[in-house]
Amino acid sequence: MIQTFAGKKISVLLGGDSSEREVSLKSGSYVTAALQKLGYDASSLDIGSDPVAAMGTARPEVAVIMLHGKFGEGGQIQGLCECMGIPYTGSGVAASSMSLDKILTKHIFKSSSIPTPEYMVFNLGTSRELELDFPVIIKPACEGSSIGCTVVREQSQLEDGLKEAWKYDSRALVEKFVKGREFTVGLIGDPPIVLPVIEIIPPDGLFDYRSKYTKGVTTYQCPADIDQEMFHSMQKIALAAHNQLGCKGFSRVDFMVDSEGVIFALEVNTIPGMTETSLLPMAAARAGYDYPSLCEQILASAEFRFSGNRL
């Protein structure tokens, strides 16, 4: 047990009212059970639609953030914890906000020479010429779990794809669709430990919401069956992305590799899923961390905030 947290009231924040509520409930419930198994005074706290009231009533001494979507991964709950003086896990306000925003992440990738597919930004109602070749993938700027994403293969589908993304955000990221193999790399700890590369093999070639969260639908290979040069290159890029965005505690970086072996970083998840089908626990297990040990590593990311640090 980490002595800093011995006897402390730990709330695992979950649920909320985002489009990823159900995933958050699953992740948070697993984490709560694991911390309890390790002897911590941990309980789940569904923040619902009024996190200020929920936090004020529960009065946790430590917050383990397992919220997905805008409020959980966009810096708001992190800012609330700081205002209330509650140490919390994972990345801070700035890193969370930048990582959730796919468009800002892309700008940072480009300025940091991190390879990423070409892209354009379409604001709500924008009428402009697409300067990318088809196919493209359209994504809301600040959603996760593939919510609102559409693969567009011809001009006639573009408007509908934009409208679908605009349901969730006033800005849409239109990105060159990379046909190839899909991978992800997790990181845990401070300084970060880079976990083994996982290859994701969805049944129909697209890792969508159903493929991500329905057990048995998608095949995973950990460690990925790729040559060592590509394996280590992907880990190196993942570490660079984590560091450039200022992530703390844990993260997961998603990749595509095209038919010529070119690696493209897609995005950084500052609060990866922690369900029974989630990828961070899978990679951590391969690196020697069972599920409770991984949860304790995540909890440890709150430790430095007891001294008043803000990151």
TrEMBL record:
Positions annotated as active site in the UniProt record: 20, 145, 278
Spans through the membrane: none
Subcellular compartments: Cytoplasm
UniProt pathway annotation: Cell wall biogenesis; peptidoglycan biosynthesis
Pfam family, one: Dala_Dala_lig_C
GO molecular function, one term: metal ion binding
Sequence positions that bind Mg(2+) 2: 267, 269
Domain ATP-grasp span(s) in chain numbering: 106-300
GO terms for cellular component: cytoplasm
GO biological process, one term: peptidoglycan biosynthetic process
PROSITE patterns, A to Z: ATP_GRASP (PS50975), DALA_DALA_LIGASE_2 (PS00844)
Residues that bind Mg(2+) 1: 254, 267
Cofactors that this protein relies on: Mg(2+); Mn(2+)
Substrates-to-products reaction catalysed: 2 D-alanine + ATP = D-alanyl-D-alanine + ADP + phosphate + H(+)
Family annotation (NCBIfam families): D_ala_D_alaTIGR, PRK01372.1
Protein name: D-alanine--D-alanine ligase
Annotated organism of origin: Candidatus Wallbacteria bacterium HGW-Wallbacteria-1
